[in-house]
Specification:
Blueprint (H helix, E strand, L loop, with lengths): L1 H15 L6 H15 L7 H12 L3 H8 L7 H15 L6 H11 L6 H42 L14
Helix pairs in contact: 2-3, 2-4, 2-7, 3-4, 5-7
Length: 168
């Protein structure tokens, strides 16, 4: 078993070693993953992150990691907020979304596949718009934090000079 593991060590190190990436590119990859993690496409978010990272030539491992920022016990809050924002942005003149939600809350046992699909079609535009807005905000905050942390972890660059001088 040592032979095959040893052959995998080089490529694995290349994927995990982030020292070659600039702080901005690391932050962009994490932010892209965080944005995708806020989308309602559960089950394919990691695949979407891989595709986007590959197309944008970002670090794929970091982008996939970004999708994990919306972990399961936070996701209901993210999607509830996104749906609320979507309801504000996307008009509902007939009140179909509100009626569907009210009916679901009053009779949760009546929810079946047919009702679920009707409710989903009524809410999909609001959810997509809301998750796009929330995802953009999460991605922006993630980028700023990740970029700052990546720059700080690299320390001062060689030749950049420090404004402070040591006392001799």
């Amino acid at each position: 078993m040592r032979g095959p593991l040893r052959r995998l060590a080089g490529p694995l190190r290349a994927v995990i070693d982030l020292r070659e990436e600039s702080p901005a590119r690391l932050a962009a990859a994490l932010a892209a993953g965080a944005f995708i993690g806020c989308t309602p496409f559960w089950g394919v978010q990691m695949l979407l992150a891989l595709v986007v990272a590959t197309l944008c030539r970002l670090n794929r491992a970091v982008a996939v990691t970004g999708t994990w920022l919306n972990f399961p016990w936070v996701a209901p809050l993210v999607y509830a907020g996104a749906l609320r924002i979507g309801h504000v942005v996307v008009p509902d003149p007939g009140g179909a979304r509100e009626a569907g939600l009210t009916s679901l809350l009053e009779h949760p046992t009546a929810l079946g596949w047919r009702n679920a699909l009707d409710l989903l079609s009524e809410m999909s535009a609001a959810l997509l718009v809301g998750t796009t807005i929330v995802g953009a905000a999460v991605a922006a905050v993630t980028f700023v934090i990740a970029w700052g942390l990546a720059r700080r972890s690299r320390g001062p660059r060689a030749g950049s000079g420090s404004p402070r001088r040591r006392a001799a």
